[in-house]
Amino acid sequence: MNPTSNSVSPASFDGERRPTVMKFGGTSVQDTAAFARVAAIARRQSARSPLPPVVVVSAMAGMTDALLEAVRQALEQDTAAALDGLEPHFARYSEVAESLTGGAAYGDFVHALYAARERLAQALETMRAYPGTIPPLRDEVVAYGEQLAATLLAAVIAGDGTACRAVDARTCIVTDEVYGRARPRWEATVARTRQALGPVLSAGVIPVLGGFIGATLDGATTTLGRGGSDYSATLIGAALQADEVQIWTDVAGIYSADPRLVARSRRLETLAYGEATDLALYGAKVLHPRTIEPVERLKIPVSIRNSYDPDAGYSMITSVSGAPPGSILAVTHRPGIAAVHVRPAGGWLAASALEEMARILHAHGVLVEHLAASRLGLTATVEQGDAIEAARRDLASVGDVHLAADRALLCVVGNFGEDVITLHPSLSEALAAFQVTPLLPHPSAHARLFLMAETDAPPAVQALHARLVEPADTL
Ligand code: ASP
Ligand code: MG
């Protein structure tokens, strides 16, 4: 996808006006009180701007996991058990509808829920009978979490007479056919999003869409990968040339370290697109790593806000770095990493070893974070899990395989200048007490990446934060 493509008009949907996109995550809509808060936030935004906002909503917290579990149960046991497991979650949606909607809107939601149950039962049965249908039907099943949330939130917002209605996200976001982690087709998405949402916005109505879901050109339901609602929001924002994409969650921004780990961590008031992406890639859970991709070139700002405390402040992500030259912005870590080392079984590695290793890892769907090669061996840093275990057997054809499990990636984000080879001495000093391997070249001018034992990573984050972030010194 390419948001800068010349064939796409850079103007907004009607050539002048720019809406705000507001995305609410699963914890922001986890119960009745949360829905009420979100409705108030959306109405407030609508009342103070000339154009209504576009609202993008996740499934209620826990619903996506429950739907995936239902698929697993249907395939391994039976459909009835799978559907039973979903009932407590349907009850949570119903409770919200009962408390916050009334009249025809309540009746419509009860009907939507009834139709969802019917269709889910059918889809789960079909998957059992015809395994070939599993990938597309799994996406169709999982999409119900967001679809029901969008229908419900639209009814709740409209409850006080605010003009608002649900729009099926599948009429906006067009993707490829890679079920479970579909990639958007940019130009089709722009065209359809403008077509579907432009008239709604022009009529002064708030559109509410489910995040995370899209459709192929043929109309089959797809999903964008776990946590993908953030990505939906920026895709919609880019397509409409939004003035801002607001990601509403349960924390008021991105912090200099995980606040549960570092009590003195502070909110980053501003950070650059690349800085936010690196933090998302290497451990900060607030943002899906692809979120920034659609909006960066268009310079649409993205803010991270707290739906539980809307006036608490926020982080603003733009093209301006949050770190003065030489300063450290944030420290994060990502556990669950393994390092696979392949040594020559005798003599040298074959000239084709690197290519062969990359091919095997790719074939097993192993995402490589870092790859280092020398004549004496190859080391790939990857996500731990079944995929790498399976790839390990095939890698024996390349050389002797050694797998170091339970590692973590430690990421330091700051303003280091253009040099991606040198490790700055103050970082080495702050990390002297830990066994760390710097992964060179550094991923970018603003990120430094280290591999270390998983158990060492939390104290290393604390040590780095105390020495390099809290004093706000420069390197
Ligand atoms: N509901 C989806 C998930 O749990 C997408 C999202 O919340 O962003 O992964
Ligand atoms: Mg999320």
From TrEMBL:
Keyword hit for Transport: no
Pfam families in alphabetical order: AA_kinase
UniProt key word Cell division: no
Entry's transmembrane regions: none
Signal peptide (residue range): none
PANTHER family for the chain: ASPARTATE KINASE, ASPARTOKINASE
Chain intervals with Polar residues compositional bias: 1-10
InterPro entries linked: AceGlu_kinase-like_sf (IPR036393), ACT-like_dom_sf (IPR045865), Asp/Glu/Uridylate_kinase (IPR001048), Asp_kin_monofn (IPR005260), Asp_kinase (IPR001341), AsparK_Bifunc_asparK/hSer_DH (IPR042199), Aspartate_kinase_CS (IPR018042)
Enzyme Commission no: 2.7.2.4
GO MF entry, a single one: aspartate kinase activity
Domain Aspartate/glutamate/uridylate kinase stretches: 20-306
Entry protein name: Aspartokinase
Family: Belongs to the aspartokinase family.
Catalyses which reaction(s): L-aspartate + ATP = 4-phospho-L-aspartate + ADP
Source organism phylogeny: Bacteria, Pseudomonadati, Acidobacteriota, Terriglobia, Terriglobales
Segments of this protein annotated with the region Disordered: 1-23
Keywords (A to Z) from UniProt: Amino-acid biosynthesis, ATP-binding, Kinase, Nucleotide-binding, Transferase
Biological or metabolic pathway of the protein: Amino-acid biosynthesis; L-lysine biosynthesis via DAP pathway; (S)-tetrahydrodipicolinate from L-aspartate: step 1/4; Amino-acid biosynthesis; L-methionine biosynthesis via de novo pathway; L-homoserine from L-aspartate: step 1/3; Amino-acid biosynthesis; L-threonine biosynthesis; L-threonine from L-aspartate: step 1/5
